[in-house]
Please model this.
Amino acid sequence: MKILVLTPSRYDSAPGMRFRMEQWARHLTRSGFTFCFEPFADEALHRILYQPGQFLRKSALVMAALARRFRAIAHAFDYDAIFLHREAALLGPAVLERLVARCRVPLIYDFDDPVWMPYRSPRNPFFAALKFHGKTAGICRLAGSVVVGNRLLAEYASRFSSNVHIVPSTVDLEQYPQAERPLKRGVVTLGWTGSHSTLPFFEPLLETLQILARRRNFRLVVISDTDTYRAPSLAAEVISRKWQAATEAADLADIDIGLAPFPDSGWTPWRCHGKVLQYMAAGIPAIASNIGILPDYIEDGVSGYLPRERAEWVERLEQLVDRPELRIALGNEARKRVEQRYSAQVWAPRVGEILRSAVGASRNA
Model:
C-alpha cells in the first residue's frame, strides 16, 4: 500500500510530524506500507521562513513551493491514499485540498493543533495575513477520514465529519530505551525543551524559579532553537542547548525535572504537548500547567505534578529537588504511562487500520 504524505514542513523539522506520521511510518513500513513524504517548504524556504524581512525571496520560494505541490497532486493516482497533515499549502484557501478530493484517492486529514484559530506571526505579518484559518472545517468535510491528536480537537472535527479518529501524538520508545535513572543526590537539573514559538510560554516561569533559587540549589537547562539563551536575573547556572533531532533523547538524559508551563489561553489548551510526553518517556517527572489535555497525560501526584498557582509550583519543585526517591518513583510511573497509552508502538498499528479502512471503503464505493 502506497501512501502520499503531504506536509507543510520538511521531514524531521516540525514537532507535529515528528510526533505523528514520521514515527508511525517507520513502524508501518515493516507491515507492507510505503510512504512518500512531500513537504510544501523545501530547504531554502524552511531556512528563511521564520526570519524577518526578505519578502521578495520568500515570495519566490512560496511560488516555487506551490508549483511543486501541483506536480505532486498530479501524481496522486499513483498512490492508494493521501495523508494530509494540517494543510496542503502554508497560505491561501483550500484550493489544493479540493483538487486532492477530486482525484478520488482516499484523503485522510490529520491535525494536532487548533489550526482553525487565527495566529499572527510577528516575523511574517504579511504572509500571516494570507493564512486562511477557516479552511480547516472545509478540509474536514472533504476528507474521508479525519485523524486528530486529542479529545478536544475531536469535538471540533466532529462538527464537520462523521468519521473522526483520536490518535494521540506519540513517542517512539525505540529512541527512548528503558534505563534505570540513577538516584542522584547533589545539584538537581531542571530542564525545558521547546521551539522558538513556545519559548515565551517558559519565560514567565522565571519568576517562580527565582523564588526557588533563593531556597534551593539547582541548575537549569534550556533546549531550544538557539544555544545562546540567557536568564541573567536567575540566580542559578543556566545551560543553553540548541535542539537537534539526532540528539533529542540524549539531551534529556541529565535532566532530573521536566518543566512544562503553559498559559490557559489561545491555542495552548487545545494542543498536543509533545515535550511532556518526551519527559515522561525518558523517566523524568514532569511538572506542567493544569490545562487542556495535560491531565490526560499526567496523573497528578502519581506520574508528575499539575500545579495551578505559583505557590504550588514552588512547593512541588521543592519536593522534587529535595527527594530523589520521589523523582524516581514519579518518573517510573510516567514511563509506564507512555508505554501503555502514548507510544508509537501502541498506536502505529491503529493508524495502519485507519489507512486500510479508508482504502477499502474507497475501493468498495
